[in-house]
Amino acid sequence: MSIKQVSxxxxxxxxxxxxVSECLGREAINIRAISVADTxxxxxxxxxxxxxxxxxSVLRSNGYKVLENEVLAxxxxxxxxxxxxxxKPLREANINVLYFYTFxxxxxxxxxxxxxxxxxxxEAAEALKRNWVHMFGREIYSL
Length: 143
What we know:
Blueprint (H helix, E strand, L loop, with lengths): L1 E10 L4 H11 L4 E8 L3 E8 L2 H10 L4 E10 L8 H9 L4 E10 L5 E7 L2 H16 L7
Antiparallel strand pairs: 1-3, 1-4, 2-3, 4-6, 5-6
Helix pairs in contact: 3-4
C-alpha cells in the first residue's frame, strides 16, 4: 500500500518534461502514475514508476534534482461516492490529504487505483486498511 513516489521540479519551458520522459524511456522505465501541477515558472511532476530506485538514479545522473517520498496506492470501487470510502476514514484519523491522482491501470480486482499523498502515511495506511477490510472484506490494493 505504501509505495515510493518520485518528484521533479521543472522550469515551465517547452520540452522540459519531454527530456525527463526520454531519460526514463532510454532506460526502459515505465511511468505507471503521473501528476503535473504548475505554478508561476515551474511545474512539479510527481510520478510512480515500475522501478523507483532506478528512476531516482537515472534522473540524478542526468542532473535533475529529485525528491522521493512514500505515498499510498489504493484500489477503489468504480462507482459514485467511492471516494468517501477513502476520505472519511482519513478525516476521522485527522490525516490531511495533500494530493491525489490516478494510476494508469487497474488493480487485481479490475478496479481503479489512486495515488494519495498525505501528511501521515503510516497512520493513513492503517486507517484505510481497517476501514477497507470492514467494508469490503479484503485488503486494499498494493502495487
